[in-house]
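Reposting from the mailing list since nobody answered there.

I have sequence plus structure tokens for a pair of proteins and want to know whether others read the tokens the same way I do. The first protein:
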Amino acid sequence: MVEAWLEDLMTSYNRDSHTQRAGYLAQVHMPGEVFQSLVWWALQALPDEILVGIDIDAEQPHRKEVETYFEGEEVHSNLFQGQGYLIKEAHIVNRGDSYSVHHLPEDWTDDMFSADRGSRAGRFTHWLHTHPNAPAIPSGPDADAAQETSGIDMILGLRFSPEGPLPWFDDVEGTRRTLKSSEEKKPRKRSFFARHALPVLGRAPSGHAIHEIQLIGFHKSGVGVNIVFVDEEGYPFGWDRTTAQLVA
């Protein structure tokens, strides 16, 4: 089950995905439970970044009414492999610094997952890696690694405390997509976060306080890919089935 505070963030993100739909040629639908696991794994692996391989469900296409709702005026229907199908599962493939974390040789991936992924233990469709206490903006190595991806690449940026050896790094330019809370949370008086006006969105099982979550998706050509968070039935968080649109 997805934490209530994280569901609220995903609902808000979906509204932004709809508002900004004209800026995207394609979309990917990610189940909330998969995304929650990605956030937990990212914090458990600190101070390392993690590389996650992501599979699609070839038997579960996006709901047509949802896909149409999030489409912009210009759509590229064959931009990447797995387009139009729901994300199914994710596996941690590697961990390390920003240079060592990226793609593994295919034969190593085969060996790692041969027991539980059978003949499909080759390349994953999509890839995601994390930026601990840094924005979700592609670096040079990120862009280079994306050239080997048949689907899309995603970056998960997290701001958290305690920071440990990773203070927040913000000296980077680029387009950001932040998961925003629908309600303003007032920090406790006399606390560190009250003095620095740093909100706490929620807490992870690792004990970390989460202050900000960013997520972007992009194709190796450099174009952005819109991300929509969906429930176990493929409907977006915040979706009204009666009106077939997001609740305002």
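The second protein, same order (residues first, tokens after):
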Amino acid sequence: MLKKNLALSVVYALTLAGLTACGGGSDSGTEAPVAVSPPTPTPTPEDVLPEFASATYVRENMGQLTEVVLLGEDLYYVSFSEEGNLLGHFTQINEHIVDGKIVEAAGFYKMFVDTALKAGQFSAELTVSNNIVDSMTSLTLESTSGPGSEMVISGGILRTVINIVDISAMNDDWVAADFSEFNIDAGLNLTAVDKDNCKISGPLTLQDNNVFAASLSYSECDAAGQYEGVLWSYSFDGVTYLKWFALDNENNTVTGLLDDFTSQQDSLALTGELQPVFYAGSLGSTLISKGNKVYYNGGDVGGQYVFTYPAPATVSVLEAEGEGLTWPTNTAVGASLTMPVPKSKNHRLSGEILLSNDNEESFSGLQAVAQSSLLATVTGSWDEMIIAEDGTVSGNIAGCVISSGAVTNYVASIADMQLTLTGCGSAGDFTGVAVGAIASNGEAIFLNLFRESGGSVVNNINGSLLRD
């Protein structure tokens, strides 16, 4: 027991001596002391907030984009639509991240039909990998003002996109039908004049996450005022976008949208005509726009009609007069078309057709066929019809002999077509359009041809033939 106590005393004495020697500092041979910092406590998982992989998260559904954009601790929720804009601005997002979720972040939002923002809260589930937010889902906007419990839930996944920062180099790329002037200079100063004749100007400041803080002044219009918010740019599904969303001190909002895609609304505004596009839907329905005409084939559930329209006064809805044959009775009728005009690349067509016999038809869900799925020409053999390299047509179709015919004037793979048929009850001259496409069962030619007599449509050839 004595030896043990003695040993402890020696160790204690040596420790004290060592401390005393370090404090003297007069001996040049003595090593300098090493400062030992107290260990940094390891934070618990709930203390570490996940970082957002991007400033912009995007989801596409039926041609409509929904976006979440982050600027500091502010979150901007945006869904631009032809029916109106769904907008939201929520603050102090980091304080509302709990267990991989954004929980009831406070702010303001407006629905498509609302004219002003109202108090609400935003929630979302986050997909986190290595402490990085890769995507968001189950987005919820919920009212916190007034009676009722209005709620909007978006269940789709919003994924990250790469933000574009060299926006001053893109002024010539935009299809800016909504702006008579638009420019961002090398110093990141924006100037523009929009369709409401608002003069817009202000500086943009690039942030670390590759979006821009926007301080925009609107003047000489109903929206005149000073607005603060965010501007961002990215590419998605082959289209490059530039957008902004800003608010004034009273939560009035301004937005802007430009892209490098010429939509059908842009085309109507700039040229007075729809672009040549081949749309297809279920049950064999098709619609072809070319020049100032629209050709509709209802397939197994509707008639066949051709419509002509003048340069419209408004580009959001097309109204056109025409004629055709009903389904299934092939009754000749006059027809009027009312169709919302697509503003986005993936917009699905819908429309109403009012017939002169007081009946109605409608269509929806028609999708533009990608140019990569269209044939450059319709040259070749299609069942018993032959189209030569020079566009001349021969052979037989629909039980008739083709005495003459021609395919001319290809635009975006859609050609004008003329046939003269003999030797059958449908003999006569037919005119319309033809387009070749890759179908599920092979290459096919789609025809929309009509024969007139006495100024009215009396017969038609509509449908498709497979390549031999």
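Reply #1 (J.P.):
I read it the same way you do. Residues 48-160 form one domain.
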